[in-house]
Amino acid sequence: MGNVNHDQANLVLRLYEERREARLREAREWFIAHYHPRTPEDTATLAPPGSRENANVRMMTSYWGMVAAIVNRGLIDEEFFYETSGGELWIVWERLKAVAPEMRKRMKNPHAWAGIERLAAGFEAWREKNAPGSNDAMRQMMAAPAAARKS
Questions:
Q1: CA dist., res. 82 & res. 133, Å (int)
Q2: What's the CA gap between 115 and 122, in Å, rounded?
Q3: Cβ(126)–Cβ(71) under 8 Å?
Q4: Does residue 45 register a pLDDT over 90?
Q5: Contact between 61 and 24 (Cβ < 8 Å)
Q6: Helix 134-150 and helix 88-96, axial crossing angle in degrees, nearest 10
Q7: C-alpha 105 chain-centroid distance
Q8: Rg over CA atoms, the chain
Q9: What pLDDT score does 92 carry?
Q10: Residue 84 — left, alpha, or beta (φ > 0 → left; ψ -120 to 50 → alpha)?
Q11: N or C terminus of the chain with fewer C-beta within 10 Å?
Q12: Would the pLDDT of 77 be above 70?
């Protein structure tokens, strides 16, 4: 277990407070319920440029990208973050990973969402170590509503 200090604990609490901000909460709710792209074209349909939905995607990816940068640079102990985050960052990456390679090519930015990807991989490894099978269980739970939407 890492060495966590009061500054790190306060930073985690501050990040949680930010997640409670009304507009970000709205973006989080929409993203979790509706953003299930398989292709970049799906993203264009689900969240066209200039739309509130596009703003939701940008808010989620920029918020979690900022959090990932903070943790990835060691300002918050990774294990402490994993213990306290609830896994939303992992869900964000699960939604992005199908479209990330092509979107990175189109944006000519191989680093887009790289911090989120790195931290989500660490979270997944940590969760699998501490709760074997939980990653697969979460993927199955997340796939159930998507399957219902297709019916």
A1: 17
A2: 11
A3: no
A4: yes
A5: no
A6: 50
A7: 20
A8: 16
A9: 97
A10: alpha
A11: C
A12: yes
